[in-house]
Amino acid sequence: MDPKTLSYSVTPFFLVLSLFCCVAPFPYPYNQLDYSQLDYSFYDKSCPHLPMIVKYGVWAAFKNDNRMAASLLRLHFHDCFVNGCDASILLDDSNGFKGEKNAFPNRNSARGYEVIDSIKTDVEKACPLTVSCTDILTLAAKEAVVLVRKTPGNLLFYQMFSKLSSFSPLYFPVQSGGPSWPIPLGRRDGVTASEKAANDQLPSPIEPLENITAKFTSKGLDMKDVVVLSGAHTIGFAQCFTFKGRLFNFKESGQPDPTLETSALTNLQSMCPKEDSSNSNLAPLDSTSVYRFDNLYYTSLVNNRGVLGSDQALMGDPNTAALVQSYSMYPYLFASDFAASMMRLGNVGILTGKDGQIRKKCGSVN
């Protein structure tokens, strides 16, 4: 899509807000969670319309780009995995540091910066210097997973804002329908970023499973989180260069990966022919349901149709393979465990209280 057609304007948004007097509380047992200095009602008085501003901004982005769900979810993961959830991934390079945007895992790959910047602009208009970019990114990642749920309440929301904007509830481009989860708020933004840290700390699709697990463990996560959060690939795409070695010259053998199912191999070779010009081509990580957040990603792994080597490797370890099997059979188990893992991810290495700052613009330190 021509980027000139992208528009994240929320001019009619504040008209929509006046139609809503409250947001229903999330039916999770909050008292069982203890995130120091974070609070589910952190912005209730200082920025009461924050959830709706984020929701509208994310949906506006989807209207123009149906890959944005996976992109925002990945942006959040890449932020939290490098020295904690502090919106460091959003910082541009400065005289004091080389940021994470141009680290190898993010360069020409990470997307969605402009969506977060647009939401931040609207949040600043409503609540100046109140809400961190980190909290906005964390909330946006959840909205990216939930996306469009056609409950009566959401249909009413569509009908209301479609009359006030260019949206039509009949033509939303994508429905992921993933789980939701409660998010305690109050994170603050970091004041630095590190290209080297991003290169060192982010998992690679060509790394052995034990290396990836070790990186998760270093963040206070575990092997189960590796399997669960890999399920985000149900709505993701990958550039061909990240897995092309499996298609033509697996481990310098001159042959394809023998574990890759034949029809999957043929399809991937057609999307990623053996020429350098195809390296940036995109292939869906879950071709069965490209834009729907479900458990079919795990079914693909069971059937040896995983695209990334790091994904298919989950079937090579008895502990992770058992989880893959369970999630392939029980979609509600996956949804529940994914929500729990996302809650843990969103609280890795956070800054609270007097640490960090509330950036006025997400791309630069105040």
TrEMBL record:
One of its GO terms (biological process) is hydrogen peroxide catabolic process. The keyword Signal applies. It comes from the Eukaryota. Disulfide bonds join C47-C127, C80-C85, C133-C362, C240-C272. Its main location: secreted. The record marks R74 as: Transition state stabilizer. Residues 1-25 form the signal peptide. Ca(2+) 2 binds at T234, D286, D294. GO terms for cellular component: extracellular region. Residues 37-366 form the Plant heme peroxidase family profile domain. It is found in: Secreted. Substrate binds at P203. Its EC number is 1.11.1.7. Belongs to the peroxidase family. Classical plant (class III) peroxidase subfamily. Belongs to the peroxidase family. Ascorbate peroxidase subfamily. Removal of H(2)O(2), oxidation of toxic reductants, biosynthesis and degradation of lignin, suberization, auxin catabolism, response to environmental stresses such as wounding, pathogen attack and oxidative stress. These functions might be dependent on each isozyme/isoform in each plant tissue. PANTHER family: PEROXIDASE 10 (PTHR31388:SF34), PEROXIDASE 72-RELATED (PTHR31388). This is Peroxidase. It comes from Tripterygium wilfordii.
